Amino acid sequence: MRAKSICAKPRQAALTLLTSLLLGVSCWAAAADMSDDAISERIKPVGGVYLADTASTAKPSGPRTGEQVYNGACIACHGSGALGAPKFRDAAQWAPRLKQGIDTLQKHAIAGLNQMPARGTCTDCSDDEIKAAIEYMTSEL
Question: Which InterPro entries does the annotation name (predicted)?
Answer without folding.
Answer: Cyt_c-like_dom (IPR009056), Cyt_c-like_dom_sf (IPR036909), Cyt_CIE (IPR002323)
